């Protein structure tokens, strides 16, 4: 009965978005080997280290509002590493001309992350619907950026604009996307814990990472 009555929130002692007890040894071994290979390059090492700092900080060092803003910064860093540093697809000036949402969307869409608002995230759904009352509908990424802007570009009228439950749900998505982006950056192709579902998951509920789902 407790499983069906629990809210879809991150457990206090279970902050991992990818580890699962049933396969954690295999997951860790795979990721560590890929991280070692990826960070043999000094530029990659510095970028990944900073991105991991953002991920850790978003879980333990910030309040609920900043748990949205901090992962967005980590995602920006990984997007810049991929599209400017590694590929040279954008010059520094053309990259700066993109909005934060455009930068993140390049990365999020490439790795196959679903940007729809989860149907059971009722508080986040209410935010999306409120935004849609006077502007074109936004997907979850658009809502994340909009709420993040309230934190990073505050005005006197805005601090209480959203409830703690709305901040919590949007933070869960932002942190999860950063986790997936970190795994994608180092080339992980395996399974991760099946999280953010309507009911709390059991150990052993797994899914392939989005970019490997067509294998």
What attributes characterize this protein structure?
single chain; 215 residues; mainly alpha; two-stranded antiparallel sheet; 3% strand
Any overview of this molecule?
The structure is a single chain. With 215 residues, the protein is mainly alpha-helical. The protein is 57% helix and 3% strand. The chain contains 9 helices and 2 strands, in the order αααααααααββ. The chain has helices spanning 2-5, 24-38, 42-60, 66-86, 92-97, 100-110, 122-132, 140-152, 164-185; strands spanning 191-193, 206-208. Strands 1-2 form a two-stranded antiparallel ribbon. α3 runs antiparallel to α9 (164-185), α4 (66-86) packs across α8 and α7 (122-132) packs across α9 (164-185). The protein starts with a helix and ends in a 7-residue tail after the last strand.
Give helix % range.
Answer: 55-70%
- Rg estimate, integer Å: 17 Å
Low-confidence segments: none
Cα distance spanning the termini:
36 Å
Quote the beta fraction.
Answer: under 5%
The main sheet orders its strands as: 1-2
Report the principal-axis shape: globular
Helices and strands, in order, run as HHHHHHHHHEE
Kindly report the oligomeric state of this protein: single chain
How many β-strands, per DSSP?
2
């Amino acid at each position: 009965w407790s499983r069906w009555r629990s809210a879809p929130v991150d457990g206090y002692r279970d902050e991992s978005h990818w580890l699962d007890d049933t396969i954690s040894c295999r997951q860790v071994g795979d990721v560590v080997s890929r991280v070692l290979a990826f960070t043999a390059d000094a530029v990659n090492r510095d970028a990944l280290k900073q991105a991991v700092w953002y991920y850790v900080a978003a879980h333990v060092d910030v309040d609920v509002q900043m748990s949205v803003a901090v992962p967005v910064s980590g995602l920006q860093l990984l997007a810049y590493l991929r599209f400017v540093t590694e590929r040279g697809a954008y010059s520094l000036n053309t990259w700066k001309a993109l909005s934060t949402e455009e930068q993140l969307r390049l990365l999020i869409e490439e790795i196959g992350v679903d940007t729809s608002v989860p149907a059971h995230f009722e508080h986040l759904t209410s935010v999306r619907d409120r935004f849609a009352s006077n502007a074109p509908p936004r997907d979850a990424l658009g809502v994340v950026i909009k709420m993040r802007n309230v934190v990073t570009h505050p005005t006197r009228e805005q601090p209480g604009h959203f409830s703690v439950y709305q901040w919590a749900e949007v933070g869960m998505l932002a942190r999860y996307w950063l986790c997936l982006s970190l795994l994608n950056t180092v080339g992980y192709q395996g399974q991760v814990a099946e999280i953010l579902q309507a009911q709390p998951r059991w150990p052993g509920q797994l899914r392939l990472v989005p970019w490997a789902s067509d294998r």
